[in-house]
Amino acid sequence: MSAAGLYNYWIVILLMMAGFYVVISSGNLVKKIVGLNLFQASVFILYISMGKVAGGSAPILREGVTQFSNPLPHVLILTAIVVGVATTALGLALVVRIREAYGTAEEDEIHQQDESL
Amino acid sequence: MIAAQLPALQVVVPLLGAPLCLLARKGNTAWALTLAISAVALLVATLLLGQVLAQGSVAYAFGGWAAPWGIEYRLDAVNAIVLLIVTGISTVVLLFAKTSVAHEIRPEQQVLFYTSWLLCLTGLLGITITGDAFNLFVFLEISSLSSYVLISLGSDRRALTAAYQYLIMGTIGATFILIGIGLLYMVTGTLNMADLAGRLPELTASRTVRTAFAFLTVGIGLKLALFPLHLWLPNAYAYAPSVVTAFLAATATKVAIYMLLRFMFSVFGAGFSFGAMPLPTLLVLLGAAAVLSGSTVAIFQHNIKRMLAYSSVAQIGYMVLGMSLASSAGLTAAVLHLFNHALMKGGLFLALGCIAWRLGSVRLGDLAGLGYRMPWTMAAFVAGGLSLIGLPLTAGFISKWYLVLAALEQGWWPVVMVVVAGSLLAVVYIWRVIETAYFRDRGEPAPPVQEAPLSMLLPTWLLVGANVYFGIYTDLSVGVASQAARVLLGTAP
Q1: Which residue in B98, B433, B37, B140 sits closest to B241, CA to CA?
Q2: Count of domains forming chain A
Q3: Alpha-carbon gap, residue B137 to B219, rounded angstroms
Q4: Which long-range contacts (CB under 8 A, 24 or more apart) does B488-493 make?
Q5: Which residue range is the domain that position A89 belongs to?
Q6: CB-based contact B148 A97, cutoff 8 Å
Q7: Cα(B276)–Cα(B478) distance, rounded to whole angstroms?
Q8: Is residue A61 part of a domain?
Q9: CB atoms B164 and A23 under 8 Å
Q10: Are B27 and B153 in contact (CB under 8 A)?
Q11: Residue A83 within any structural domain of the chain
């Protein structure tokens, strides 16, 4: 397959690396969660892409349709999306609690406060 | 009739128990319910182990859907023993929890605490029992999300940052595992582990399979706290509530070790993982580095909980070393150490829980003279510590003995040296505690301290006693471990 035919996968790699970079490089706890979301979203696209069958239609039994896309990866990724939402909610809740306890959501400032104990 | 449904009950009972627990109004009601459910789970795990030992393996098709399509629960010696560890530790720690949680967790949060506990238990049991790769990911996230909550409930505010850090690294690890499973599905079209194992051997040359292998190794390595991916572990263990540390230290990393064993040996097969891929070199180097660095850093810690957390990193190293040998003896040692380490770390962290309950601190300096004020607690700590070092007549000795034998069998002398060096370093950090507790006077202004109550001492001594018991009577632990090794290498009947 040509490079252009793998378009979806290039996007996956791009999103994954961008998300991963934000998680590592950003010092702001909320931005880290955003990066994590981007990272997870890339995997959602990976799963959705792999379920597509060239020329296949939506997997619903109808007259005249013989080729279907594989619905299983789509169903799987629904579960993973739910997990992702739960992770984001928990992560943000933790950030709220951290801000209440430290008065900041910046990693280096939190580190400084703990060091001075 | 009900015996056939046991694999499902193992997971369903705690899963349904969690929302039920949420209905409780008082912490003590929730505690009693959680303890009862955990005890039922322990009973189920014991019965399942009996079935496995009698039949070799037990398969359960969920909802009656046959294996490659439906979700299958599959039990053999490897996961039956892990189920027993998880449920056993959970039950013993819960016996301890009532007093400790009442002290460390605010009353309005106690019900939620026990609910999270049950969810975490569900997740750990689910990972262990399932025979479906995607189902494993779902349970992994159930256990991870609830363990982030459990850790964040620690009384120190650093518990929050520790939980956050664990959330970030744990999610990256779980997402890597998800990518690995996705890539495997892409080439094989199946998610059932036994089915995957049947289809992968012809595909070993596929670059997708190799990429999947890499993602799974790194992802599980993150959950496992394999050196150098262990950075989340020391803080998470140090600032979590005492009972949570005891529970997670004794179970969560063990379940991750199980995942690694299952994927590397059962799914990919030893021939691919340890032949075509450079896994043995990688594991032996990282395992040795974990043992040496974990033990060395542990010596310089002032917070004893943190010290034991670094020691956990080192102990994971021993298990990985055993695994890297990829021989029957090496795997026996790894599974044996998995079992024994759960007992010793459980006991040690519970002893620390007693100290935290009386002193409100687990800093080394505050322990001065404590050996005479809390004799039973400190004696339990010393006995657990001796097992950690690997003194004969303790469980720790048995697993290290098997590990050394396994390494000698292949002439891997450097591994033997690492095990001995790690044990000597363990002597140093355990001795620091003993010296402070027994040979140093309690300062003048220090308030009087009494022994911990019986409700906390009994569970602690139960685990410490198990260390001695399994150090002397090794039939059960070694028998199951060697059967597990045969299953993993595919030589079992």
Answers
A1: B98
A2: 1
A3: 11
A4: B488/B78, B488/B261, B488/B265, B488/B266, B488/B270, B488/B331, B489/B265, B489/B270, B489/B328, B489/B331, B490/B265, B490/B269, B490/B270, B491/B328, B492/B56, B492/B76, B492/B77, B493/B56
A5: 8-53+69-115
A6: no
A7: 30
A8: no
A9: no
A10: no
A11: yes
Flag whether A24 is in a domain: yes
Query: What is the DSSP secondary-structure string of B62-98?
Result: GGG--TTTS-EEEE-HHHHHHHHHHHHHHHHHHHHHH
Supply the CATH number for residue A75's domain: 1.10.287.3510
| Helices vs strands, H then E, count in chain B | 20, 2
Does residue A22 lie within any of the structural domains? yes
Residue B132, SS3 per DSSP: strand
> Which residue from A46, A80, A90 is facing B148, i.e. has the nearest CB?
A90
| Six-digit token string for A89 | 């909610």
- A63 at B interface, C-beta within 8 A: no
Instruction: State the residue for tokens 């040996």.
Output: B265
B152 to chain A: which residues are within 8 Å by CB?
94, 97
DSSP A1: -
A43 → closest Cβ in B138, B161, B179: B179
Please give the pLDDT value at position B446: 61
pLDDT of residue B203: 84
- Taking CA–CA distances from A110, the nearest residue in chain B reads B161
CA angle in degrees (0–180, nearest 5) for B441-B447-B452 = 90
**CA gap B255, A4 in Å, rounded:** 42
Instruction: Give how far Cα B292 sits from Cα of B307, B316, B427, Å.
Output: 14, 11, 13
How many degrees, rounded to 5, is the angle at CA B242 between CA B239 and CA B244?
A: 85
pTM of the predicted structure, to 2 decimals: 0.92
Q: Which residues of B464-476 are buried (b: 16+ CB within 10 A; e: fewer)?
A: bebbbebbeebee
Contact B116, B30 (CB under 8 A): no
Chain B: residue whose CA lies nearest to A70: B189
Check whether the bond before B228 is cis (ω within 30° of 0). yes
pLDDT (tens, 9 = 90+) of chain B, 493 residues, equals: 678 888 888 999 999 999 999 898 888 889 999 999 999 999 999 999 988 888 888 888 888 888 788 888 989 888 899 999 999 999 999 999 888 888 888 888 899 999 999 999 999 999 999 989 999 999 999 999 999 999 999 888 889 999 999 999 999 999 999 999 999 998 998 899 988 888 888 888 888 899 999 999 999 999 998 888 888 999 899 999 999 999 999 999 999 999 999 999 889 888 888 888 888 888 999 999 999 999 999 999 989 999 999 999 999 999 999 998 888 888 999 999 999 999 999 999 999 998 888 888 888 888 888 888 888 889 999 999 999 998 888 888 999 999 999 999 888 888 899 999 999 999 999 999 998 888 887 766 666 677 788 888 888 999 999 988 988 888 888 888 888 888 888 875 4
- Residue B284 has φ and ψ, to the nearest 5°, of -70, -40
